[in-house]
Amino acid sequence: MTKKILAALLLTGSLMVAGCNTVEGAGRDVQSAGQAVEKAAD
């Protein structure tokens, strides 16, 4: 479970670095990261 959470956090960080050109892009990144964490928790 810890590895899944770590993987989700790393994915989130890379998405935020790659896609944060605008505030809207940042919002989408945060939303997708939240979904990834939810999937990892299930």
SSE layout and pairings?
Elements: H1 2-19, H2 23-41
Helix pairs in contact: 1-2
* Tally of DSSP helical segments: 2
Q: How would a crystallographer describe the biggest sheet? A: none
H and E string: HH
Rg computed from alpha carbons, rounded to a whole number of angstroms: 10 Å
Distance between the termini: 10 Å
Low-confidence stretches: none
Question: Strand-residue fraction?
Answer: under 5%
User: Which bin fits the share of residues in helices?
Assistant: over 70%
Mean pLDDT figure: 78
Oligomeric description of these chains: single chain
> How does the helix and strand content classify structurally?
mainly alpha
> Can you tell me the overall shape?
elongated
Q: Based on DSSP secondary structure assignment, what is the total number of beta strands?
A: 0
